[in-house]
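The instructor's notes for this session suggest beginning with a concrete chain rather than abstract definitions. Hand out the sequence below and ask the class to guess, before any prediction is shown, which regions might be ordered.
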Amino acid sequence: ADFYNMTNGAPMGALVMEGVEYHGVASENFFAILKDGTAVIGSPAEYASYKDQIQEAVGGSMYLVEDGKSVVSSSRGFHQPTRHSRTCVGITAEGKVVLMVLDGRQEPFSAGGSAEELAQIMLDAGCVIAINLDGGGSTTFVAKQEGQDSLTVVNRPSDGYERSVSSSLM
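After discussion, reveal the predicted structure:
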């Protein structure tokens, strides 16, 4: 989920599992599931107000959607105009969590998307708030297909294999 130090594996932002904080928030935004089951996306400044209520959390990067509107422009943040494999999480007005994985870097199979395109996809999915997560070679979606007993990778990671990462959403 979160960007991480590829040398030592440490996440850049929040990592909370089963109510235990393994890494606090830094300068990154976060996605969390509170102990009452409510999903939240917040800024580093908001983390302290949720800290005692967080059951699960991961860090993320820039906001894609806030208040039901895209907040991405080609001049804001890092590498938005560039098309890459992308991963993001959003929340609908009804409180449903939307996870999205977009393959890329494998033309002609997949071209990825820009952050502006990602924001539009999340808006089309009904999200009123969404943040970008680690993408590129870290973009991997694993699921248990209907009628199957085991988990399998259902997208096509751009590295050609599942990369080791510091945090995941499950």
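Then share the key points. The CA atoms of residues 71 and 109 lie 29 Å apart. The helical segments are 44-50, 115-124.
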